[in-house]
């Protein structure tokens, strides 16, 4: 399955156009409706409640619509949520819930529909766009980009390694990859493509923008799996593994077990993207020379640049060291407030950032829809069905198959946390029921997929919408590259990780 997240007919700044439906072929409008109706009319599978099957039908219809994009992605997500909320007694709630004394489906369905807007990751993503706005308005992002281009811009490949190393250095201390990549790395690298006349939502995006954006999201996916503290759901997963399978995993255990896989992937990544999704600009002396001249024109740092740099360092310091005291999203929103107070950006600037508000609505609705799959019991039914097919399969083959299923079912989720909560305990239970499986290795393989599965879709992990929304990687390319690198990542985990963990 696939979900295209944001309207790609964006302006150069990345904001979706006000009008998109005009001129859209009728079949793109009708096909999602037809798919929904056909699935809903099919007999529901054994063991799955009828209302769960109907919810799944709507979910698939939303997926098809988001792939075809007859409307902007955020609008499609909103329509899907509204449709479920209106039909909640038939698609969201089972007979047992409806029969509870005092239960009001109208109120409960509204609470569900708005639940995505209370998701902290949604607001952290929004804040990442505001940070990028600050870099743009003050010119600090341009200055940093020029410094990078001057020192490392002679070869595009070295820029790819610079992005990868930057994420790697931040990952052990930043348990939010949205804060790390979307809020820190992205605001810098988004300034680089324009220096090479590479523009979003334009054929020139392939000059260098597409390469850099894909390296960045792929790098943060790897580093999210490399460190226990590199991704917040990793910590939740370790606790679930401890409670469900009685397997304790320390920070060192995690790093040692994944290090061979992570190191190989990080070393190969920029070169692999360079070969699979090659930039048109390979090297040249003129750009670093030009960057040096532009830096000279900029002169000294301005007060606004210094204020923004201080705020960014404050946010980074609190993200790294203040996690036990203050939530990462609270930090981000607080820094945005300080940016307004210090006039680094104005409130009108924030209101005018259509891309940020579009992403907020889009991601909030997808989080609600993905949560609905778990709520109605579809995800558990699916996991149980897969587990029932493992009878008589060799322990090693069963382990590899279950890990692959766990990894690729992330196509159904817009949240790694939701994926962990819904499927990890079920998968662990299935594995524990198969004689001969090394449950510690199995548990490690499952939790190691949480970061790398972020490469699969434009909604797979926190920073995904940020890079997808940049406009440098078109929808079809994002899905194609997600599948290619998803296979490469899971293959590396199984081919390198399994023998290594068995030898530990």
Characterization of this structure:
The chain has 25 helices and no strands. It is mainly alpha-helical and 504 residues long. The protein folds into three domains: 26-116, no CATH class; 120-231 and 276-358, no CATH class; 360-503, no CATH class. Helix 2 packs antiparallel against helix 19 (354-375).
Secondary structure elements and their pairing?
Elements: H1 26-41, H2 50-68, H3 73-86, H4 88-91, H5 95-98, H6 105-114, H7 120-138, H8 140-152, H9 156-170, H10 177-189, H11 192-195, H12 209-226, H13 232-245, H14 251-276, H15 286-298, H16 303-321, H17 328-341, H18 347-352, H19 354-375, H20 378-388, H21 395-408, H22 416-432, H23 439-452, H24 464-468, H25 475-503
Helix pairs in contact: 1-2, 2-3, 2-19, 3-6, 3-19, 7-10, 7-16, 7-17, 7-19, 8-15, 9-10, 9-12, 9-14, 10-12, 12-14, 12-23, 13-22, 13-23, 14-25, 16-17, 20-22, 21-22, 21-23, 22-23, 23-25
């Amino acid at each position: 399955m696939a979900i295209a997240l944001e309207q790609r007919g964006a302006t150069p700044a990345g904001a979706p156009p006000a009008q998109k439906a005009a001129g859209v072929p009728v079949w793109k409008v009708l096909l999602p409706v037809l798919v929904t109706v056909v699935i809903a009319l099919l007999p529901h599978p054994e063991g799955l409640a009828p209302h769960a099957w109907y919810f799944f039908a709507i979910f698939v219809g939303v997926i098809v619509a988001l792939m075809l994009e007859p409307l902007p992605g955020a609008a499609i997500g909103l329509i899907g949520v509204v449709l479920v909320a209106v039909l909640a007694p038939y698609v969201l709630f089972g007979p047992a819930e409806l029969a509870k004394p005092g239960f009001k489906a109208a109120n409960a369905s509204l609470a569900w529909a708005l639940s995505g807007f209370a998701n902290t990751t949604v607001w952290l993503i929004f804040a990442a766009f505001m940070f990028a706005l600050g870099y743009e308005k003050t010119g600090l992002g341009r200055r940093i980009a020029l410094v990078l281009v001057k020192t490392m811009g002679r070869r595009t490949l070295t820029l790819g390694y610079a992005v990868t190393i930057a994420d790697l250095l931040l990952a052990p201390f930043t348990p939010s990859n949205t804060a790390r990549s979307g809020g820190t790395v992205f605001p810098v690298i988004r300034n680089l493509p324009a220096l090479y006349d590479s523009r979003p939502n334009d054929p020139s995006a392939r000059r260098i923008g597409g390469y850099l954006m894909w390296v960045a999201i792929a790098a943060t996916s790897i580093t999210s799996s490399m460190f226990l503290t590199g991704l917040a759901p990793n910590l939740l997963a370790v606790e679930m593994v401890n409670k469900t399978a009685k397997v304790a995993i320390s920070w060192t255990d995690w790093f040692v077990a994944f290090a061979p896989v992570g190191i190989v992937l990080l070393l190969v990544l920029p070169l692999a993207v360079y070969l699979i999704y090659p930039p048109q600009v390979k090297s040249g002396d003129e750009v670093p020379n030009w960057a040096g001249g532009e830096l000279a024109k900029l002169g000294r740092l301005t007060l606004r640049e210094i204020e923004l740099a201080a705020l960014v360092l404050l946010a980074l310091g609190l993200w790294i060291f203040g996690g036990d005291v203050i939530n990462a999203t609270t930090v981000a929103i607080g820094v945005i407030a300080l940016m307004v107070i210090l006039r680094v950006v104005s409130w009108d600037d924030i209101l005018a950032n259509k891309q940020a508000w579009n992403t907020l609505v889009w991601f909030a609705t997808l989080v609600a829809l993905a949560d609905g799959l778990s709520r109605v019991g579809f995800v558990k039914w699916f996991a149980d069905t897969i587990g029932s097919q493992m009878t008589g399969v060799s322990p090693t083959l069963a382990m590899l198959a279950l890990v692959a299923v766990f990894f690729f079912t992330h196509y159904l989720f817009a949240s790694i946390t939701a994926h962990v909560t819904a499927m990890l305990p079920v998968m662990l239970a299935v594995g524990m029921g198969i004689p001969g499986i090394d449950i510690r290795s199995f548990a490690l393989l499952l939790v190691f997929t949480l970061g790398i599965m972020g490469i699969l879709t434009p909604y797979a992990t926190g920073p995904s919408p940020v890079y997808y929304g940049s406009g440098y990687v078109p929808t079809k390319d994002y899905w194609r590259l997600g599948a290619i690198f998803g296979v490469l990542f899971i293959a590396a985990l199984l081919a390198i990780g399994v023998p290594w963990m068995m030898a530990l």
